[in-house]
Automatic annotation (TrEMBL):
One of its GO terms (molecular function) is efflux transmembrane transporter activity. The chain crosses the membrane at residues 34-52. The keyword Membrane applies. This is Transporter RND family.
Amino acid sequence: MSDLFSKDNDVVEVVDGNVVSSSRDKKPANKKDMIKNVAIAFLSVMLILTFFSNTIMNYTLPQVATQQISRGSVSPQIRGTGTVNAEDPYNVTLKETRKVSGVAVKEGSHVEIGDVLFYLEDKESEELKTARENLEKLELAYEQSLFSGDVPDDVISKVRSGNTTSYDTYQIQLKAVNDRYDAAKAVADAATKAVEYLTDLQNHDKNEIEYQTLTYNYENANADYQKKLIDYTYDPNDTEAIEKAKKEWTHIEDENKRETTELETYKSQVGIGYDQKLIEAKANETAAKKELEKAEEEKDKQVKSINVEIALCDQRDSIKEQKEKIAQLEKESVGASVKAPVAGIVSQVNKASGESISADETIAVIQIDGKDMTTSFSVTNAQAQKLHVGDAARPQNSWMFSDDFRATLTSIKNDKTDPSGKKLLTFKIESTDVTPGQSIALSIGERAVDYDMVVPNSAIKTGTTSKFVLAVKSKSSPLGNRYIATKVDVDVVASDDNYSAITAALDGDEFVITTSNKPVKAGEQVRLANE
């Protein structure tokens, strides 16, 4: 007996070569049995879902941690960060350029007076070397100016002897030569004006004589014309009238000729007189101008002498000052090391081995023993009203400081950046762990106050218009307790680092949600982390 498959994949039973049966010949299953089987399966599934529904639902709900509202204390804290400043820190400097060969201290080290701070290369400073070179240049320039050939011998002697003429003496000398120059100039100007006046007067008189001469010439020409006119206007037979008229005009001509002759004589005499006066006036002018030139030369010589003397004295004094500078540099010259001039804590070390130090450059800063260190930061006016001078503060990162740390509030003043809204708090810092320039975070707070309802800060949520908490309400069901998140508006009356005191429509023993593994909305069902 064997089973074969037909073309239609029907099972065929073969016995001794004959087909006994096939699946096509089987009868259909009983319909009632099928309905029974389906019902049993459905009821089984419903039983399983009912039994595990609570467990399945819990895995889909937000898991929350809660804490019960309780009575407790809150200590509000005010925090701020500032940079530590030293009062009157000592800046270690050198007066010369040197090179560091080694550093003997570190920042934060305490030093006593005389302790070595830096080791220096044993080499003459650049300032001293440059000062000596400048001295040589000054001395050369002084000698060249002194013996240039333009300096009076008495000035050379006076300058070389170290004497210096006072400004009062210079003023008297200048006044004397200026007075002589002004007097000579006044005489020369007067002489020149006299020559100009005589020349103008001579020209005026010459012009006057020329005018008179021309006038007489005109009258003579007119008389001659009148005599010729008589021959045409008088009766030719009236010889007596004609002769009389011509005689009158001839008399006028004679008088004019006489006046003209006298004018010529006067002109000659006047010319001679003016020439003599002009010769004398011009001679006076020439003499006055020579005196003016002499006075001007004397003035220029005196001014030049004073200027040369002042310049030479300045060069001489510059040489003296340069020598004093060299002596001071030699006196202040640092040896092979730089030592601490004061006792205190080294707050800054600004140079490393191999680096050069410039003159007057700060190479280290020492916080002098006994001097205070301070820090400041701003707070709101409302925060400042809760504080008083003398309140103690503590570092926020207290593990970084030893037990001797002290921070005391020393002043509360208006903040210049916002006088109406902020106050500047200043603290005195006392600690061996703190150095100037260090940033330090402080906290200072009010005394602890007890409140009826205190919750963790993480329980406080901020809404659009107010703050609220999500309280957990429990509801019983056939399958166990269900927990619902309920929104309750609250007023936060005080807070510190961890807790907030609230007032709300609560009994005071409810549990509030502090954290959750996903966002929770009011009215949602949640599952507790410990269930």
